[in-house]
Write a structure and sequence with these properties.
By secondary structure, this protein is α+β, with helices and mostly antiparallel strands. The protein has a domain of 185 residues: 3-Layer(aba) Sandwich (NADH Oxidase), CATH 3.40.109. Helix content is 45%, strand content 12%. A four-stranded antiparallel β-sheet has the order 1-2-6-5, with helices on both faces. The protein has a two-stranded antiparallel sheet with strand order 3-4. α1 crosses α2 and α7 crosses α11. Bound molecules: 3-iodo-tyrosine (IYR). The site of 3-iodo-tyrosine has 7 residues, from loops. 3-iodo-tyrosine binds next to loops.
């Protein structure tokens, strides 16, 4: 407005020309019909989308936002069957009565968990212990009980060496170009860098894959709802189980390494690497950062 007012005092002829142009403009003359047209177009679009949904013609992108696996579903409502067998529910068997000390004891156990980056390469925990921990992880809740996870346990040195090569190659690029200066600086107190001896020293590497979809018993694509959150919960339970078994671990999420590691382990394309864990015993004289954890008052809000 100010601009027009200023210009009008300077260029009165220009102002009158602009006014004539505006009053002759069809857009201004016919705005009620244009508005009506737009509303009709929007209504048609809405009806079309609604009908598409009714036919269950949807893709993973619509259902899962960022999870980029394209799976088309074109079944009419009547042909859709649940992926799980529809059976009568069974009585719930409570595991234990309330143990008032259970939470405190579990906290005492878990507060001792630290991310360990230096592993004892000479002492290997029994595989049965690792297997029990993975069994525990497999008890995690999952979207529609789809159990959308795969735990790859690597103990062969040659495979660990290949994992290390892939990760170190990418981490060189991550630290030098992909991670911004603030990120690299924030990691300085943790003493991390692109060199990862723990990938070959740790007796076990556990690569946790989320399955973006599965296959039904009759060979159809099976939707894996909330596969990332479900697999992350399973990974959390695995960390607790490893801690309970007296094992040390390191959670890593190697940036840009997923596809190469998936190919190395010959996993199918519906599996995406979520977390790589190094597992074993800490090296003698292992040091960890001097960190504090937030207290209850700053992580819990009561209503
Ligand atoms: N993935 C890199 C960098 C890294 C990132 C975060 I965030 C950490 O908490 C620790 C490390 C690495 O493993 O070195």
């Amino acid at each position: 407005m100010c601009f027009v007012a200023y210009r009008s005092t300077v260029f009165p002829q220009l102002q009158s020309k602009m006014e004539a142009l505006l009053s002759s403009c069809k857009l201004f003359k016919h705005w009620p019909s244009i508005l009506l047209g737009l509303l009709v177009a929007l209504a048609i679009k809405y009806i079309k989308t609604y009908r598409k949904r009714r036919l269950r013609t949807s893709s993973w992108e619509q259902l899962e936002g960022t999870e980029n696996v394209a799976v088309e579903f074109t079944l009419a409502d009547s042909a859709i069957q649940p992926a799980l067998e529809e059976k009568p529910h069974v009585p719930f068997v409570p595991g234990h009565n309330l143990n008032p000390n259970g939470g405190r004891r579990f906290y005492e156990l878990m507060r001792g968990r630290r991310s360990v980056r230096a592993f004892n390469a000479n002492i290997k925990p029994p595989i049965d212990v690792v297997e029990d921990c993975i069994r525990a992880a497999g008890t995690a809740p999952s979207g529609a009980h789809t159990e959308p996870w795969t735990f790859c346990v690597v103990e062969q040195l040659a495979v660990k060496q290949s994992v290390r090569e892939i990760v170190e190659h990418e981490e060189q690029i991550n630290y030098s170009t992909r991670m911004h200066a603030q990120w690299v600086t924030d990691l300085r107190p943790l003493h991390t860098n692109a060199v990862k001896p723990y990938l070959t020293d740790a007796p076990y590497l556990i690569l946790i894959f989320k399955q973006t979809h599965g296959t039904t018993t009759d060979g159809r694509k099976k939707l894996h709802y909330y596969n990332e959150i479900s697999t992350s919960i399973a990974a959390g339970i695995l960390l607790c189980a490893l801690q309970a078994a007296g094992l040390c671990s390191l959670v890593t999420t190697p940036l840009n390494c997923g596809p190469a590691l998936r190919r190395l382990l010959e996993r199918p394309t519906n599996e995406k690497l979520l977390i790589l864990l190094a597992v074993g015993y800490a090296e003698d004289n292992c040091k960890v950062p001097d960190l504090e954890r937030k207290g209850l008052q700053s992580i819990m809000v009561k209503y």
